[in-house]
């Protein structure tokens, strides 16, 4: 089929063609970015934690400033440890998907000139490393001598265990064992590499920073108290945590139990993902509504043109055009309109993504989302125009003889 007659017909209906093409361009821009946001949200929802989530929970209490933290730890560790079903209980400053309490910036030189990025420190007392169920790639588990007292927010000079993602970021292509980094005056040396340990907040710098975590063996006491990692059998965990909360209230009546944070890691993950789940649903609804409006616009325009061209279609049928020829005419016409729209839409999609990057610190839109959006709109256009095109193909040749 020749394209020139179709283009000539479209030029005679510039306004209608332009409106539909711009509607398709807007749909393309929103579709590509919305799909990218949905995939990003789903990736965030299903993020790997690196710990044995099914067996872990935490009990968190808040004590006043004059609280004896050593005594508080002793009482709560004893009380929670006596709860039937508790396999282990240890002190830790934070858990995955809970409140973050150890976010710091690190440098690769003592002068602080070479920045290493913002990471999360997991400060864990004896037993916490094993309880988390971390997978060790290099080095050995922390020994008794590795647990150091805190000097402020963390030990001043300690051996640490870093994740493989963080090690590759800090020392790409090198063996991280023995490498050093600093936090102001605090000095740390890598003694082991973990397969993965997600940051509590999921990574403030985007998906690539989610695993920038450091495990620091620390002695519980002043600066490390009030947060307790509980391990139990998965099928008993909820009951164990309920009893552990009651035991904590009885053992430390002067402390305030944080019931929102005193839950299983699985429940903390659900709370952490609530906004992502809600946003995913909203974006799916936006995409569905936008595609429906676009499809209705194509159907309306094609139906209008079929009604206007009935005599022209009858003349073509009388001159020998088959039903297939008429059907292909409208399909080709729709393909050209959609193609003009998606050409503009791809530019709008990148423009919208640049605005989202600047305003909400979202990552750059991958190029492969553009052809996916284009193909989706081409298919949508062909499906939307099919019914009007079939009605046009059914116009009999006798229509040409009527005035």
Structural features:
7-stranded mixed beta sheet, 2 domains, 10 helices, 403 residues, alpha+beta, single chain, 4-stranded antiparallel beta sheet
Describe this structure in words.
49% of the residues lie in helices and 16% in strands. With 403 residues, it is of the alpha+beta class. It has two domains: 4-45 and 272-401, no CATH class; 64-254, no CATH class.
The number of helical elements comes to 10
Task: Please state the CA-atom Rg, rounded to the nearest Å.
Answer: 31 Å
Number of domains: 2
Profile the largest sheet. Answer: 7 strands, mixed
The CA-CA distance between the termini, in Å, is 28 Å
Query: Level of helix content?
Result: 40-55%
> Overall mean pLDDT score?
91
Outline type: elongated
Low-confidence stretches: none
InterPro entries: ABC3_permease_C, Macrolide_Exporter_MacB
Domain ABC3 transporter permease C-terminal: 286-396
Protein name: FtsX-like permease family protein
Transmembrane segments: 20-39, 277-307, 334-356, 368-387
